[in-house]
Design a protein that fits this description.
Number of strands: 2
Radius of gyration: 22 Å
Order of helices and strands: HHEEHHHHHHHHHHHHHHHHHHHH
Strand order of the largest sheet: 1-2
Membrane topology: Multi-pass membrane protein
Subcellular location: Endomembrane system; Membrane
Keywords: Membrane, Transmembrane, Transmembrane helix
Protein name: NuoM family protein
Transmembrane segments: 6-24, 31-50, 74-100, 112-130, 136-153, 165-185, 212-233, 245-269, 275-296, 303-323, 335-354, 366-390, 410-434, 455-477
Largest sheet: 2 strands, antiparallel
Number of helices: 22
């Protein structure tokens, strides 16, 4: 069996095994074993990719192509480049950390872990697919479990949040499907239509079709990436979702939006990209600044992190639309950094809420004295979020801004300055939360008896902390690994 298909087989086998578990202990043991294997496979994939790339110059490596529906030329076509590999590693780490953070899930534990791993299976399938139809199927597999995970295991207005999320993402899926079909019906060079991304890239799609279907495809993916003004489903979804679901939601699922825009909309529709880029740059810049300002006004920890995600992912879209290698490299690094960082934030928020029974920062204080490990990890995540050197966010944001400033025209310069200014706002809300929640005297007497972080909580946090520090201390390793896969995109758009 090929190395990529195993990323679907292992979670499916884990899900099948979970059906036979009888209690929480068995369910979490099976989940940990399955997702640990998946994590080790992702590390092996990095090594195998580096070795294969030395002797193989193809755009996508480890390719496999099996006909599914011959009449419509739909294939199970898979392959990866360094960007796909990086996203697979991100997914495997966040999913495994989410399993550890969900160690005490007592309500329908078997069903919870099954839903969580189904979501992860869809994400893995999305990242390895190079057939548009197959990619869309995995996209839906990844999105649909969110309704159940929030609606059943969530808190607060969970039914409202789950329904709002589902309606908005299904609406985006409808636009995306129209865009994909538009690409498909204009993909013929020799009389044969195709869904294969690499084959479509060899076809000159009519400019009129590109201008029509690019915004549909872009918006279809961008809604999942919380692009302004289609972001409102995300904060509500985060606020009601259980901790591990928020981790996967922000850390992994929302990355499908930026990845799909880059891999499909921009790569296959270059003329449409050039025509619409300025319009979407405006929306991205608004999203970056609006998300940061909205985070300042929040007092609920989950809403603060949710609006922070809107800001950070807006920066990813902004970087992609800069259309140069430096900014694109920064966009991928920002996606990875945000994935690890925001998953860590949500894990820590869940740990704090589980002990204090509140997410309102105005009702907390002095937690650094009683929860030193959790508090210090929150500070580190915050420093990474505001782009402090030595952590993953610094190199990502630096490349985004350097790439953006390569455009000499006034429009791009103003957009870049506004986007950079959002970093100042980010520092304000991060330091504000740290000051109110962690510093000062212990506000409530019962906080003195709060339980310290457990071994499984520390394991989940450390899984996320290590790549944040690694990317910050060794930025060139990650940057150079990603950069070699950007050339085909540069050739298409420039």
């Amino acid at each position: 069996m090929d190395i990529l298909t195993l990323f679907l087989v292992v979670p499916i086998l884990t899900i099948l095994t979970l059906f036979f578990t009888k209690n929480l202990q068995q369910a979490r043991t099976v989940s940990v074993i399955g997702m640990t294997i998946q994590f080790l496979m992702s590390l092996h994939l990095v090594y195998a990719y580096i070795q294969e790339r030395k002797i193989n110059a193809e755009i996508m490596l480890f390719g496999k192509d099996i006909v599914w529906f011959e009449q419509f030329n739909i294939h199970y076509a898979i392959g990866v480049d360094s960007i796909s590999v990086a996203m697979i590693v991100l997914t495997s780490i966040v999913v495994l950390a989410g399993v550890f953070i969900s160690w005490k899930t007592e309500e329908l534990p078997k069903e919870f872990f099954i839903s969580l791993i189904v979501l992860a299976t869809g994400v893995f399938g999305f990242f390895i697919s190079i057939d548009l139809f197959t990619m869309f199927v995995f996209y839906e597999i990844a999105v649909i479990p969110m309704f159940l995970l929030i609606g059943i295991w969530g808190s607060g207005p969970r039914e409202y949040s789950a329904m709002k999320l589902t309606i908005m993402l299904m609406g985006a899926s409808a636009l995306l499907l129209v865009g994909i079909l538009g690409i498909y019906f204009n993909s013929s060079a020799d009389g044969n239509l195709t869904f294969n991304i690499l084959e479509i890239a060899q076809v000159d799609i009519p400019i009129a079709a590109q201008k029509l279907f690019f915004p549909l495809t872009f918006i279809g993916f961008a809604v999942l990436g919380a692009m302004f003004p289609f972001h409102t489903w995300s904060p509500d979804g985060h606020a009601s979702a259980p901790t591990a679901v928020s981790m996967l939601h922000a850390g992994v699922l929302m990355k499908l939006g930026g990845y799909g825009i880059f891999r499909v909309a921009m790569y296959l529709l270059p003329e449409g990209t050039m025509m619409w880029s300025n319009f979407f740059i405006v929306l991205a810049v608004i999203g970056v600044f609006y998300g940061a300002l909205a985070a300042i006004k929040q007092t609920d920890l989950k809403y603060i992190n949710a609006y922070s995600s809107v800001s950070h992912l807006g920066m990813v879209l902004f970087a992609l639309l800069m259309i140069n290698k430096t900014a694109w490299n920064g966009a991928i690094l920002q996606s990875l950094s945000h994935g690890f960082m925001t998953a860590m934030f949500f894990a820590l928020i869940g740990m704090i809420y589980g002990r204090t029974h509140t997410r309102d920062v105005t009702k907390m204080g002095g937690l650094l004295k009683v929860l030193p490990f959790i508090s210090m990890m929150y500070v580190i995540a915050g420093l990474a979020s505001l782009g402090l050197p030595g952590f993953s966010g610094f190199m990502a944001e630096m490349q985004i801004f350097v790439g953006a400033f390569q455009h000499p025209d006034l429009f791009h310069r103003i957009a870049t300055i506004v986007t950079i200014s959002a970093i100042v706002v980010t520092a304000v809300y991060i330091l504000r939360v740290v000051g109110m929640m962690l510093m000062g005297p212990v506000r409530h007497e019962e906080y003195n008896t709060l339980e310290s972080a457990t071994w499984y909580e520390k394991t989940g946090i450390l899984l996320l902390l290590i790549p944040i520090v690694f990317m910050g201390v060794f930025p060139l390793l990650t940057s150079e690994f990603i950069r070699e896969s950007l050339s085909p995109f540069i050739d298409r758009l420039l």
